[in-house]
């Protein structure tokens, strides 16, 4: 996560993971929400940079990026694992 410290990254990761969990209608615990939020932010920042978009700084924008990234990770997991 750009421009935030480790403690704020954990807090934003938990918030972003929980919101993504609600959006995607999945059921995970707090630790998985934190992991999804942080990894989602890293993945989405990398995707945005790869397509030439400079992700905005600040904790609100990074939270939005993390939510989108976490939703993408949940979707990708479901795609690989299948619904059954």
From TrEMBL:
<feature type="transmembrane region" description="Helical">
    <location>
        <begin position="59"/>
        <end position="80"/>
    </location>
</feature>
<feature type="transmembrane region" description="Helical">
    <location>
        <begin position="30"/>
        <end position="47"/>
    </location>
</feature>
<dbReference type="InterPro" id="IPR007341">
    <property type="entry name" value="Transgly_assoc"/>
</dbReference>
<dbReference type="GO" id="GO:0005886">
    <property type="term" value="C:plasma membrane"/>
</dbReference>
<feature type="transmembrane region" description="Helical">
    <location>
        <begin position="6"/>
        <end position="23"/>
    </location>
</feature>
<comment type="similarity">
    <text>Belongs to the UPF0410 family.</text>
</comment>
<keyword id="KW-0812">Transmembrane</keyword>
<keyword id="KW-0472">Membrane</keyword>
<protein>
    <submittedName>
        <fullName>Membrane protein</fullName>
    </submittedName>
</protein>
<keyword id="KW-1133">Transmembrane helix</keyword>
<keyword id="KW-1003">Cell membrane</keyword>
<dbReference type="Pfam" id="PF04226">
    <property type="entry name" value="Transgly_assoc"/>
</dbReference>
